[in-house]
Amino acid sequence: MQTVARQLGSMEERLLAFEALISTIDERQRKKIDALSDGINRLLMSQSKNDADLPPLPPPDFVSKPHPEIERDLKKVLRKVIVIDDNLKRQMKSVNNEVKIVGESLTQHMDKLTTRQDRLWNDWNVCQNEQISSISEASSSLSRTGALFVDQMLIKETQSEKALLHNYFGNVYDNLKELDSKSKHHLGELETTLKNIIKENSQDIKKRADNIAAVLNEKTSNILTALDDTAAMSENLQHSLTENFEDLTKDIRGLKKVEQVMLNTADAVLDTKRSIEFGIQQVILELSDTVKNSGKNIDSTLSDHINNISFAILKNQTISLSQI
User: Is CB count within 10 Å lower at the N or C end of the chain?
Assistant: First the structure.
């Protein structure tokens, strides 16, 4: 971007120099027109003083014209020259304005500058043709030899100035082409740099992705190993649970047998209890009969005491049976 800015600055300086050159050419053209007018006046004065010094005689139609008509024609020619000079000044001013606009926005108004340049060349050619025709008419009315000489000098100078302007415009066009090529070159370098940066970043991203993939693979392998270990532990645990379940099944079967034995024992105890109760009842009945037979005078307290003993025996048997 700095290179492009420097090139634009140099181009602006060249355009300013081109503007100064156009002003110089305008001033030079005006001086030449003034010199041409002075030369025509001197020719008129020399014609009035000494007719012998003139070139060969003019045509018959020129001889037949009176002197005031010649002066009037010359004045018309001078007015045309002045008008042409004013037109050139206006056109040069417009060209200067266009050059300033081009210096501010060179890329956007390149087509407009080319169109304006063509128009300027056309106007220049038209003005040049008008000048040549006017000067040719005035010179032919005064003297063919003098007019031819002046005309040739003017044409040569005009052609030289035209060639100079053409060369300068050619240089400007070449500089613009060079600026365009340099801009394209810098854009190409910028594109290459961006591609290299993108390529380096893509390689870096690829390396990081590979590293992440390696870490993920390692962690995945660790997880798989842990899962394998967990599966082995689960299998061992399942095998242990199966063995323990079989042992528990055996123990439960043994407990069922113990339960059957206890039930059988309980039945036997109940049978024993019934037998004892029956025996106690028999003892009580026998004691009662004995008491009745022995006498009815025994204190009632003895009977209560016997009843309490019987009740305590039955209660103790019931508690023992419940505990069993």
Answer: N
